[in-house]
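Working notes for the structural subgroup meeting. M.R. asked for a predicted model of this chain before we commit to crystallization trials. I am recording the input and output together here so anyone reviewing the notebook later can reproduce the run.

Input as submitted:
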Amino acid sequence: MRSRPTTISLILALGLWLCAAGAGAAGANQPAGPPAGAMTDKDPSAYQGMTADQIARVKKGEIVILDQPQSFEGRQLITAAFIFNQDLNTVWTLMLQGWRQEEYLPHLEHSPLIRKWDSGDHIEYQIKVAGVEVKYRVLGTHDNSRYYCTWKLDPAFKNDMKEVTGFWQYYWVDEHHTLGRYGSYAETGFWVPAFIRDFLTRRDLPESLNVQRRWVDSGGTWRKLDYQPAPKPKESP
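Returned structure, recorded in token form:
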């Protein structure tokens, strides 16, 4: 099928995402300090590859797109960092519900959950941009012990994308804040110069990450204005 370059940046943003719900729900009575196994913002990897100015901007609440791509499974991923205004377990629990991305991401019409299991999930994404429809399925994996998840295309599905992959890593900052490090790569089935793909991603990704943070900061209650839940299947008589 034919697509458009702007679709790429949206799909990259959909790595805002994925995996299956499975971490313990967070609550106001959590003990002080990071959960067992969690990395903190004092870990060397938390701000790796960032300048002092970028680190300062993240700590002030900005969403920062890193200047240099990050190598991940043979691909060069566009990466970003920002701080959620929620504790680590709340962020983790919400962000593992990738099928709910339709509630807040622009142009994402539906994101039905196909299947979930203890260490991952299977989600379909249905996007429409300027009349162009794109459908693909993603397999997510998650590591509850490290607050880390990754995703890739389901090779068994007839995807409208050639490749989609990425990761999320979360770091404990304090009882009310969580640092997120994000990276994603997407490629359509037709040729788009890498510099155009990267330009569109860097231009559009901050807004997509912003609405994701807004959703998480609200505890998963915020919705985009035009959100319409998918109709439920009719029950057999």
